[in-house]
Design a protein that fits this description.
This protein has 242 residues and is of the alpha+beta class. It has 5 helices and 10 strands; from the N terminus they run H-H-H-E-E-E-H-E-E-E-H-E-E-E-E.
């Protein structure tokens, strides 16, 4: 039985709803920890995040490739930028090799992270800071960790008064993992489909000619994926030759 484009869009929405729900569940204890004290010792923050995040990265066939909390530089005592961020198990990673469990992201081992000193200007931080809402960045190639196409989902974390943003809780989702979760559903739709972001860039497609990161061009119809910045673009199926 074939599926409709709307059912494909619903499947996308469900995947992202699950990830956003997880971010909200992580945000609550981090906000409680930070309270209104103004700053916190790094070891206390890291221990809290380590108790929350790695178990999700160790799940069988995990959806997330990395996750954690990125603190505003004024929050963590003695730090200009602080990443309490963990990576899931990696296979033949060009930067980190292969790992069989979660590992902490260590910025001190990277020689190309100067751009992170101005992390407040980066989309995954800047947009939640401006809108006070969750945001999805990408697809883009992650040169820091995975060297692969990813989507980064971030959600603002505020102080006890809810006035000051003290950082973002976030997760990285590999496009290839998203394909494994959604492609079978997309292929059950009779027409060719492309999942695109708000700028029209392809996240996944059932047309081999449309690759991730490309601009998709117009479709015959679009279906919004509720709660996300994505739409499913429907292209007319090619007619047979007469």
């Amino acid at each position: 039985m074939s599926r409709t484009p709307a059912e494909a869009a619903d499947a996308v929405a469900e995947v992202f709803r699950d990830v956003f729900d997880q971010l909200a569940a992580w945000r609550a204890p981090i906000e409680q920890l930070l309270g209104s004290s103004g700053e916190i010792r790094p070891v206390i923050l890291d221990t809290t995040v380590a108790d929350l995040v790695p178990p999700r990265l160790e799940e069988p066939d995990p959806m997330l490739v990395g996750a954690g909390f990125i603190a505003d530089g004024e929050v963590v005592r003695g730090k200009g930028v602080h990443f309490a961020w963990w990576l899931g198990p990696l296979a033949d990673n060009p930067v980190l090799g292969s790992t069989d469990g979660p590992t902490r992201l260590d910025l001190s081992t990277r020689g190309y992270t100067e751009y992170l000193r101005d992390f407040r200007a980066l989309e995954w931080y800047r947009i939640p800071a401006t809108t006070r809402h969750a945001h999805v960045t990408g697809p883009y190639v992650d040169h820091l960790c995975t060297c692969d196409y990813i989507l980064t989902l971030t959600m603002p974390v505020h102080d006890a008064d809810g006035e000051r943003m003290v950082g973002v809780v976030g997760a990285d989702l590999a496009v290839r993992t998203l394909e494994r979760a959604l492609l079978a559903t997309f292929l059950e739709v009779d027409e060719p489909l492309a999942l695109v972001n708000e700028h029209g860039r392809v996240v996944l497609s059932t047309e081999p000619a449309l690759q991730v990161g490309q601009l998709s061009g117009p479709g015959a119809a679009t279906v919004a994926c509720a709660g996300t910045p994505f739409t499913v673009r429907v292209r007319p199926a090619a007619s047979g030759s007469s």
